[in-house]
Protein backbone atom coordinates (compact mmCIF):
# COMPACT_ATOMS: atom_id res chain seq x y z
CA UNK A 1 0.00 0.00 0.00
CA UNK A 2 2.76 2.42 0.92
CA UNK A 3 6.20 2.40 -0.61
CA UNK A 4 9.29 2.27 1.58
CA UNK A 5 12.34 4.48 1.37
CA UNK A 6 15.41 3.33 3.29
CA UNK A 7 18.04 5.76 4.57
CA UNK A 8 21.30 3.81 4.95
CA UNK A 9 24.28 5.59 6.42
CA UNK A 10 26.22 6.73 9.49
CA UNK A 11 25.37 9.12 12.32
CA UNK A 12 24.18 11.80 9.89
CA UNK A 13 21.49 9.33 8.89
CA UNK A 14 20.91 7.93 12.40
CA UNK A 15 20.23 11.46 13.69
CA UNK A 16 17.97 12.38 10.80
CA UNK A 17 14.80 12.29 12.93
CA UNK A 18 16.08 14.76 15.49
CA UNK A 19 14.48 18.21 15.61
CA UNK A 20 14.43 19.61 12.07
CA UNK A 21 16.12 16.46 10.76
CA UNK A 22 16.17 15.61 7.06
CA UNK A 23 14.66 12.14 7.55
CA UNK A 24 11.68 13.46 9.51
CA UNK A 25 11.17 16.16 6.87
CA UNK A 26 11.08 13.49 4.16
CA UNK A 27 8.58 11.47 6.20
CA UNK A 28 6.42 14.58 6.49
CA UNK A 29 6.71 15.42 2.79
CA UNK A 30 5.69 11.88 1.84
CA UNK A 31 3.00 11.47 4.48
CA UNK A 32 0.31 8.95 3.43
CA UNK A 33 2.66 7.89 0.62
CA UNK A 34 5.87 6.32 1.88
CA UNK A 35 7.39 4.93 5.04
CA UNK A 36 10.84 6.33 5.71
CA UNK A 37 12.94 3.58 7.26
CA UNK A 38 16.05 4.88 9.05
CA UNK A 39 19.04 2.61 8.88
CA UNK A 40 21.73 4.94 10.20
CA UNK A 41 24.62 3.53 12.23
CA UNK A 42 26.66 6.09 14.10
CA UNK A 43 30.41 5.82 13.52
CA UNK A 44 30.14 3.23 10.74
CA UNK A 45 32.32 3.37 7.65
CA UNK A 46 31.73 1.48 4.39
CA UNK A 47 33.89 -1.44 5.55
CA UNK A 48 31.61 -2.13 8.51
CA UNK A 49 28.50 -1.25 6.50
CA UNK A 50 29.41 -3.91 3.97
CA UNK A 51 29.79 -6.48 6.75
CA UNK A 52 26.26 -5.82 7.99
CA UNK A 53 24.39 -4.98 4.80
CA UNK A 54 22.61 -8.34 4.62
CA UNK A 55 21.36 -7.88 8.16
CA UNK A 56 20.26 -4.32 7.49
CA UNK A 57 18.26 -5.43 4.46
CA UNK A 58 17.16 -8.96 5.33
CA UNK A 59 15.95 -11.21 2.54
CA UNK A 60 12.48 -11.29 4.12
CA UNK A 61 11.96 -7.82 2.72
CA UNK A 62 11.85 -9.27 -0.77
CA UNK A 63 9.39 -12.04 0.02
CA UNK A 64 5.91 -10.80 -0.58
CA UNK A 65 6.82 -7.22 0.13
CA UNK A 66 7.10 -4.75 -2.67
CA UNK A 67 10.64 -3.54 -3.25
CA UNK A 68 11.46 -0.15 -1.72
CA UNK A 69 11.00 2.93 -3.86
CA UNK A 70 14.48 4.17 -2.97
CA UNK A 71 17.55 3.71 -0.78
CA UNK A 72 19.90 6.55 0.11
CA UNK A 73 23.50 5.45 0.72
CA UNK A 74 25.29 8.09 2.74
CA UNK A 75 28.77 7.03 3.91
CA UNK A 76 32.24 8.49 3.76
CA UNK A 77 32.47 10.91 6.69
CA UNK A 78 34.02 8.15 8.82
CA UNK A 79 36.02 6.49 6.06
CA UNK A 80 37.68 9.89 5.59
CA UNK A 81 39.05 10.07 9.16
CA UNK A 82 42.81 10.43 8.81
CA UNK A 83 44.56 7.11 9.59
CA UNK A 84 47.19 8.51 11.96
CA UNK A 85 44.86 10.68 13.97
CA UNK A 86 42.57 10.12 16.95
CA UNK A 87 39.70 8.47 15.02
CA UNK A 88 42.07 6.47 12.84
CA UNK A 89 40.31 3.17 13.58
CA UNK A 90 37.38 4.39 11.47
CA UNK A 91 39.58 5.20 8.46
CA UNK A 92 39.12 3.29 5.21
CA UNK A 93 41.58 3.88 2.33
CA UNK A 94 40.12 5.74 -0.65
CA UNK A 95 40.32 2.81 -3.06
CA UNK A 96 38.68 0.45 -0.61
CA UNK A 97 35.96 3.06 0.04
CA UNK A 98 35.15 3.05 -3.66
CA UNK A 99 35.17 -0.71 -3.80
CA UNK A 100 32.93 -0.97 -0.74
CA UNK A 101 30.44 1.49 -2.24
CA UNK A 102 30.39 -0.56 -5.44
CA UNK A 103 29.73 -3.71 -3.43
CA UNK A 104 26.90 -2.07 -1.44
CA UNK A 105 25.31 -0.80 -4.66
CA UNK A 106 25.70 -4.15 -6.30
CA UNK A 107 24.07 -5.84 -3.29
CA UNK A 108 21.11 -3.43 -3.45
CA UNK A 109 20.74 -3.73 -7.23
CA UNK A 110 20.79 -7.45 -6.95
CA UNK A 111 18.16 -7.53 -4.23
CA UNK A 112 15.92 -4.88 -5.78
CA UNK A 113 16.60 -4.25 -9.48
CA UNK A 114 13.97 -1.49 -9.72
CA UNK A 115 14.80 0.43 -6.56
CA UNK A 116 16.28 3.90 -7.02
CA UNK A 117 19.66 4.21 -5.30
CA UNK A 118 20.89 7.67 -4.34
CA UNK A 119 24.51 8.06 -3.29
CA UNK A 120 25.23 11.04 -1.02
CA UNK A 121 28.76 12.35 -0.54
CA UNK A 122 30.09 13.18 2.92
CA UNK A 123 29.55 16.81 3.96
CA UNK A 124 32.42 19.30 4.14
CA UNK A 125 34.40 19.48 7.38
CA UNK A 126 35.03 22.56 9.51
CA UNK A 127 38.35 21.64 11.08
CA UNK A 128 38.32 24.33 13.75
CA UNK A 129 34.96 23.15 15.04
CA UNK A 130 36.21 19.55 15.04
CA UNK A 131 38.93 20.62 17.48
CA UNK A 132 36.34 22.30 19.64
CA UNK A 133 34.02 19.26 19.67
CA UNK A 134 36.25 16.17 19.78
CA UNK A 135 34.61 12.79 20.49
CA UNK A 136 37.44 11.69 22.69
CA UNK A 137 40.25 13.65 24.27
CA UNK A 138 42.42 15.08 21.53
CA UNK A 139 45.55 16.77 22.78
CA UNK A 140 47.34 16.59 19.45
CA UNK A 141 46.10 19.95 18.19
CA UNK A 142 45.16 18.29 14.88
CA UNK A 143 41.58 17.49 13.89
CA UNK A 144 40.75 13.84 13.15
CA UNK A 145 39.16 14.85 9.84
CA UNK A 146 40.10 17.49 7.26
CA UNK A 147 37.95 19.14 4.64
CA UNK A 148 40.46 18.16 1.97
CA UNK A 149 40.20 14.48 2.83
CA UNK A 150 36.39 14.68 2.94
CA UNK A 151 36.59 16.26 -0.52
CA UNK A 152 38.58 13.33 -1.91
CA UNK A 153 36.01 10.87 -0.59
CA UNK A 154 33.21 13.04 -1.98
CA UNK A 155 34.83 12.96 -5.44
CA UNK A 156 35.33 9.22 -5.21
CA UNK A 157 31.69 8.78 -4.26
CA UNK A 158 30.57 10.77 -7.32
CA UNK A 159 32.86 8.71 -9.54
CA UNK A 160 31.33 5.48 -8.29
CA UNK A 161 27.78 6.83 -8.79
CA UNK A 162 28.63 7.73 -12.38
CA UNK A 163 30.26 4.36 -13.01
CA UNK A 164 27.23 2.53 -11.61
CA UNK A 165 24.83 4.89 -13.38
CA UNK A 166 22.97 5.86 -10.26
CA UNK A 167 21.85 9.17 -8.81
CA UNK A 168 24.14 11.17 -6.55
CA UNK A 169 24.17 14.29 -4.39
CA UNK A 170 27.40 16.25 -4.12
CA UNK A 171 26.79 17.48 -0.61
CA UNK A 172 30.43 18.42 -0.10
CA UNK A 173 30.29 21.01 -2.91
CA UNK A 174 26.65 22.02 -2.43
CA UNK A 175 27.16 23.02 1.20
CA UNK A 176 30.32 24.98 0.54
CA UNK A 177 28.35 27.26 -1.79
CA UNK A 178 26.38 28.48 1.23
CA UNK A 179 27.84 31.56 2.99
CA UNK A 180 29.19 30.63 6.42
CA UNK A 181 28.53 26.95 5.69
CA UNK A 182 30.74 26.08 8.65
CA UNK A 183 28.09 27.27 11.09
CA UNK A 184 25.10 27.52 8.77
CA UNK A 185 25.16 23.83 7.82
CA UNK A 186 27.13 22.15 10.62
CA UNK A 187 27.09 22.41 14.41
CA UNK A 188 30.29 20.58 15.38
CA UNK A 189 32.16 20.81 12.11
CA UNK A 190 30.70 17.50 10.87
CA UNK A 191 27.09 16.90 11.95
CA UNK A 192 24.19 18.83 10.49
CA UNK A 193 22.62 21.93 11.96
CA UNK A 194 18.99 22.76 11.16
CA UNK A 195 20.26 24.56 8.03
CA UNK A 196 22.36 21.58 6.97
CA UNK A 197 19.42 19.24 7.48
CA UNK A 198 17.36 21.49 5.23
CA UNK A 199 19.98 21.22 2.48
CA UNK A 200 20.04 17.42 2.63
CA UNK A 201 16.24 17.22 2.76
CA UNK A 202 15.84 19.50 -0.26
CA UNK A 203 18.47 17.68 -2.29
CA UNK A 204 17.02 14.24 -1.56
CA UNK A 205 13.47 15.47 -2.26
CA UNK A 206 14.68 16.90 -5.58
CA UNK A 207 16.35 13.63 -6.56
CA UNK A 208 13.28 11.60 -5.65
CA UNK A 209 11.22 13.89 -7.86
CA UNK A 210 13.73 13.57 -10.72
CA UNK A 211 13.50 9.81 -10.39
CA UNK A 212 9.71 9.88 -10.63
CA UNK A 213 9.05 9.04 -6.98
CA UNK A 214 8.35 12.51 -5.61
CA UNK A 215 5.38 13.58 -3.49
CA UNK A 216 3.24 14.07 -6.62
CA UNK A 217 4.12 10.67 -8.09
CA UNK A 218 3.38 8.31 -5.23
CA UNK A 219 -0.12 6.97 -4.58
CA UNK A 220 -1.95 8.12 -1.47
CA UNK A 221 -2.77 5.50 1.16
CA UNK A 222 -6.59 5.44 1.57
CA UNK A 223 -9.04 8.15 0.46
CA UNK A 224 -8.22 11.75 1.33
CA UNK A 225 -10.82 13.64 3.38
CA UNK A 226 -11.43 15.95 0.41
CA UNK A 227 -12.56 12.94 -1.62
CA UNK A 228 -15.09 11.86 0.99
CA UNK A 229 -18.63 12.88 0.00
CA UNK A 230 -20.05 14.85 2.97
CA UNK A 231 -23.56 13.76 1.96
CA UNK A 232 -22.68 10.06 2.02
CA UNK A 233 -19.25 9.57 3.60
CA UNK A 234 -19.39 5.79 3.90
CA UNK A 235 -19.93 5.43 0.16
CA UNK A 236 -16.27 6.27 -0.32
CA UNK A 237 -15.23 3.38 1.87
CA UNK A 238 -17.68 0.83 0.43
CA UNK A 239 -16.62 1.63 -3.13
CA UNK A 240 -13.01 1.62 -2.16
CA UNK B 1 15.72 -7.03 14.07
CA UNK B 2 13.90 -3.80 14.92
CA UNK B 3 10.50 -3.68 16.51
CA UNK B 4 7.73 -1.67 14.92
CA UNK B 5 5.44 0.82 16.60
CA UNK B 6 2.35 1.88 14.64
CA UNK B 7 0.67 5.25 15.18
CA UNK B 8 -2.97 4.88 14.08
CA UNK B 9 -5.16 7.96 14.12
CA UNK B 10 -6.40 11.11 12.40
CA UNK B 11 -4.63 14.31 11.32
CA UNK B 12 -2.95 14.69 14.71
CA UNK B 13 -1.19 11.43 13.91
CA UNK B 14 -0.72 12.13 10.18
CA UNK B 15 1.06 15.39 11.03
CA UNK B 16 3.22 13.85 13.72
CA UNK B 17 6.41 14.06 11.62
CA UNK B 18 6.14 17.79 11.00
CA UNK B 19 8.67 20.06 12.69
CA UNK B 20 8.79 19.17 16.40
CA UNK B 21 6.15 16.46 15.85
CA UNK B 22 5.53 13.75 18.44
CA UNK B 23 6.01 10.90 15.96
CA UNK B 24 9.39 12.16 14.82
CA UNK B 25 10.43 12.64 18.46
CA UNK B 26 9.50 9.02 19.19
CA UNK B 27 11.49 7.87 16.15
CA UNK B 28 14.46 9.83 17.45
CA UNK B 29 14.10 8.52 21.01
CA UNK B 30 13.96 4.92 19.75
CA UNK B 31 16.64 5.30 17.07
CA UNK B 32 18.38 1.99 16.29
CA UNK B 33 15.59 0.27 18.24
CA UNK B 34 12.18 0.67 16.61
CA UNK B 35 10.61 1.80 13.35
CA UNK B 36 7.79 4.25 13.91
CA UNK B 37 5.13 3.58 11.28
CA UNK B 38 2.71 6.49 10.82
CA UNK B 39 -0.82 5.49 9.95
CA UNK B 40 -2.58 8.83 10.41
CA UNK B 41 -5.56 9.70 8.20
CA UNK B 42 -6.60 13.33 8.28
CA UNK B 43 -10.31 13.87 8.95
CA UNK B 44 -11.05 10.24 9.79
CA UNK B 45 -13.35 9.23 12.62
CA UNK B 46 -13.64 5.77 14.20
CA UNK B 47 -16.44 4.78 11.80
CA UNK B 48 -14.20 5.24 8.79
CA UNK B 49 -11.17 3.89 10.64
CA UNK B 50 -13.02 0.67 11.33
CA UNK B 51 -13.88 0.35 7.63
CA UNK B 52 -10.21 0.53 6.66
CA UNK B 53 -8.46 -1.13 9.61
CA UNK B 54 -7.76 -4.35 7.69
CA UNK B 55 -6.12 -2.38 4.91
CA UNK B 56 -4.11 -0.30 7.36
CA UNK B 57 -2.79 -3.43 9.06
CA UNK B 58 -2.68 -6.01 6.28
CA UNK B 59 -2.41 -9.66 7.18
CA UNK B 60 1.02 -9.82 5.53
CA UNK B 61 2.38 -8.06 8.58
CA UNK B 62 1.73 -11.18 10.63
CA UNK B 63 3.34 -13.61 8.18
CA UNK B 64 6.95 -13.99 9.07
CA UNK B 65 7.19 -10.54 10.54
CA UNK B 66 7.39 -10.11 14.26
CA UNK B 67 4.32 -8.48 15.76
CA UNK B 68 4.67 -4.77 16.47
CA UNK B 69 5.80 -3.70 19.92
CA UNK B 70 2.94 -1.22 20.20
CA UNK B 71 0.08 0.53 18.42
CA UNK B 72 -1.27 3.91 19.48
CA UNK B 73 -4.96 4.44 18.68
CA UNK B 74 -5.74 8.14 18.67
CA UNK B 75 -9.25 8.98 17.42
CA UNK B 76 -12.14 11.04 18.67
CA UNK B 77 -11.40 14.62 17.63
CA UNK B 78 -13.49 14.11 14.47
CA UNK B 79 -16.13 11.85 16.02
CA UNK B 80 -16.75 14.72 18.47
CA UNK B 81 -17.68 17.23 15.73
CA UNK B 82 -21.21 18.40 16.57
CA UNK B 83 -23.77 16.77 14.23
CA UNK B 84 -25.65 19.93 13.29
CA UNK B 85 -22.62 22.08 12.62
CA UNK B 86 -20.36 22.62 9.65
CA UNK B 87 -18.24 19.45 10.05
CA UNK B 88 -21.30 17.35 10.95
CA UNK B 89 -20.50 14.70 8.35
CA UNK B 90 -17.53 13.63 10.50
CA UNK B 91 -19.65 13.22 13.64
CA UNK B 92 -20.08 9.78 15.20
CA UNK B 93 -22.49 9.35 18.15
CA UNK B 94 -20.83 8.71 21.49
CA UNK B 95 -22.09 5.13 21.88
CA UNK B 96 -21.00 4.19 18.39
CA UNK B 97 -17.59 5.81 19.07
CA UNK B 98 -17.15 3.50 22.06
CA UNK B 99 -18.27 0.49 20.08
CA UNK B 100 -15.96 1.36 17.19
CA UNK B 101 -13.00 1.72 19.56
CA UNK B 102 -13.83 -1.68 21.07
CA UNK B 103 -13.92 -3.19 17.57
CA UNK B 104 -10.58 -1.62 16.60
CA UNK B 105 -8.98 -2.90 19.81
CA UNK B 106 -10.48 -6.33 19.31
CA UNK B 107 -9.14 -6.41 15.75
CA UNK B 108 -5.64 -5.49 16.96
CA UNK B 109 -5.70 -7.93 19.89
CA UNK B 110 -6.83 -10.68 17.57
CA UNK B 111 -4.09 -9.96 15.05
CA UNK B 112 -1.33 -9.41 17.58
CA UNK B 113 -2.13 -10.79 21.05
CA UNK B 114 1.15 -9.55 22.55
CA UNK B 115 1.22 -6.05 21.10
CA UNK B 116 0.78 -3.18 23.56
CA UNK B 117 -2.21 -1.00 22.61
CA UNK B 118 -2.29 2.59 23.86
CA UNK B 119 -5.54 4.52 23.54
CA UNK B 120 -5.16 8.31 23.39
CA UNK B 121 -8.11 10.63 24.06
CA UNK B 122 -8.81 13.60 21.78
CA UNK B 123 -7.14 16.83 22.90
CA UNK B 124 -9.15 19.71 24.40
CA UNK B 125 -10.69 22.23 22.00
CA UNK B 126 -10.19 25.98 22.03
CA UNK B 127 -13.49 27.10 20.53
CA UNK B 128 -12.42 30.68 19.82
CA UNK B 129 -9.46 29.51 17.78
CA UNK B 130 -11.71 27.08 15.89
CA UNK B 131 -13.77 30.06 14.72
CA UNK B 132 -10.59 31.82 13.64
CA UNK B 133 -9.27 28.79 11.71
CA UNK B 134 -12.28 27.11 10.09
CA UNK B 135 -11.64 24.40 7.46
CA UNK B 136 -14.47 25.59 5.28
CA UNK B 137 -16.43 28.82 5.34
CA UNK B 138 -18.33 29.02 8.61
CA UNK B 139 -20.72 31.95 8.84
CA UNK B 140 -22.77 30.43 11.65
CA UNK B 141 -20.73 31.97 14.45
CA UNK B 142 -20.60 28.57 16.16
CA UNK B 143 -17.51 26.36 16.20
CA UNK B 144 -17.85 22.89 14.69
CA UNK B 145 -16.34 21.37 17.83
CA UNK B 146 -16.70 22.25 21.54
CA UNK B 147 -14.42 21.44 24.42
CA UNK B 148 -17.32 19.92 26.32
CA UNK B 149 -18.07 17.45 23.52
CA UNK B 150 -14.38 16.57 23.18
CA UNK B 151 -14.40 15.93 26.94
CA UNK B 152 -17.28 13.45 26.63
CA UNK B 153 -15.43 11.53 23.93
CA UNK B 154 -12.26 11.62 26.02
CA UNK B 155 -14.10 10.12 28.99
CA UNK B 156 -15.68 7.48 26.75
CA UNK B 157 -12.24 6.62 25.40
CA UNK B 158 -10.86 6.14 28.92
CA UNK B 159 -13.85 3.96 29.82
CA UNK B 160 -13.22 1.70 26.83
CA UNK B 161 -9.51 1.46 27.68
CA UNK B 162 -10.36 0.39 31.22
CA UNK B 163 -12.95 -2.12 30.01
CA UNK B 164 -10.48 -3.63 27.55
CA UNK B 165 -7.66 -3.48 30.13
CA UNK B 166 -5.33 -1.51 27.94
CA UNK B 167 -3.17 1.54 28.47
CA UNK B 168 -4.57 5.03 27.93
CA UNK B 169 -3.50 8.66 27.89
CA UNK B 170 -5.99 11.27 29.06
CA UNK B 171 -4.74 14.01 26.78
CA UNK B 172 -7.89 16.09 27.23
CA UNK B 173 -7.25 16.48 30.97
CA UNK B 174 -3.46 16.49 30.80
CA UNK B 175 -3.31 19.43 28.40
CA UNK B 176 -5.81 21.51 30.34
CA UNK B 177 -3.49 21.40 33.35
CA UNK B 178 -0.99 23.46 31.36
CA UNK B 179 -1.31 27.26 31.76
CA UNK B 180 -2.56 28.84 28.53
CA UNK B 181 -3.06 25.37 27.03
CA UNK B 182 -5.16 27.01 24.30
CA UNK B 183 -2.07 28.52 22.70
CA UNK B 184 0.64 26.55 24.50
CA UNK B 185 -0.57 23.17 23.22
CA UNK B 186 -2.69 24.01 20.15
CA UNK B 187 -2.24 26.32 17.17
CA UNK B 188 -5.74 26.34 15.64
CA UNK B 189 -7.76 25.24 18.63
CA UNK B 190 -7.43 21.56 17.68
CA UNK B 191 -4.07 20.65 16.12
CA UNK B 192 -0.87 20.50 18.12
CA UNK B 193 1.67 23.28 18.51
CA UNK B 194 5.28 22.42 19.31
CA UNK B 195 4.31 22.45 23.01
CA UNK B 196 1.35 20.14 22.40
CA UNK B 197 3.52 17.76 20.41
CA UNK B 198 5.93 17.65 23.33
CA UNK B 199 3.12 16.66 25.70
CA UNK B 200 1.96 13.81 23.45
CA UNK B 201 5.55 12.64 22.89
CA UNK B 202 6.32 12.60 26.62
CA UNK B 203 3.09 10.82 27.51
CA UNK B 204 3.54 8.13 24.87
CA UNK B 205 7.22 7.67 25.81
CA UNK B 206 6.19 7.29 29.47
CA UNK B 207 3.55 4.68 28.60
CA UNK B 208 5.98 2.71 26.44
CA UNK B 209 8.41 2.67 29.36
CA UNK B 210 5.68 1.54 31.78
CA UNK B 211 4.83 -1.25 29.37
CA UNK B 212 8.44 -2.43 29.25
CA UNK B 213 9.16 -1.24 25.72
CA UNK B 214 10.95 2.02 26.47
CA UNK B 215 14.27 3.17 25.05
CA UNK B 216 16.17 1.19 27.72
CA UNK B 217 14.23 -2.01 27.11
CA UNK B 218 14.49 -2.46 23.35
CA UNK B 219 17.48 -4.16 21.76
CA UNK B 220 19.85 -2.05 19.66
CA UNK B 221 20.09 -2.85 15.96
CA UNK B 222 23.76 -3.77 15.24
CA UNK B 223 26.77 -2.98 17.45
CA UNK B 224 27.12 0.53 18.82
CA UNK B 225 30.32 2.37 17.95
CA UNK B 226 31.32 2.36 21.64
CA UNK B 227 31.34 -1.45 21.53
CA UNK B 228 33.66 -1.58 18.55
CA UNK B 229 37.23 -2.35 19.63
CA UNK B 230 39.42 0.43 18.14
CA UNK B 231 42.36 -2.00 18.06
CA UNK B 232 40.46 -4.60 16.01
CA UNK B 233 37.20 -3.10 14.76
CA UNK B 234 36.27 -5.92 12.39
CA UNK B 235 36.35 -8.44 15.23
CA UNK B 236 33.04 -6.98 16.41
CA UNK B 237 31.43 -7.73 13.08
CA UNK B 238 32.89 -11.20 12.64
CA UNK B 239 31.79 -12.28 16.09
CA UNK B 240 28.42 -10.75 15.62
TrEMBL record, chains A, B:
GO biological process: lipid catabolic process
CDD domains membership: Isoamyl_acetate_hydrolase_like
Keyword Aminoacyl-tRNA synthetase included in the entry's annotation: no
GO molecular function, one term: hydrolase activity, acting on ester bonds
One Pfam family cited in the UniProt record for this chain: Lipase_GDSL
Keyword flag Lipid metabolism: yes
Superkingdom to which the source organism belongs: Eukaryota
Keywords assigned by UniProt, alphabetized: Hydrolase, Lipid degradation, Lipid metabolism
Gene3D superfamilies: SGNH hydrolase
Family stated for the protein in its record: Belongs to the 'GDSL' lipolytic enzyme family.
UniProt protein name: SGNH hydrolase-type esterase domain-containing protein
Source organism (scientific name): Arabis nemorensis
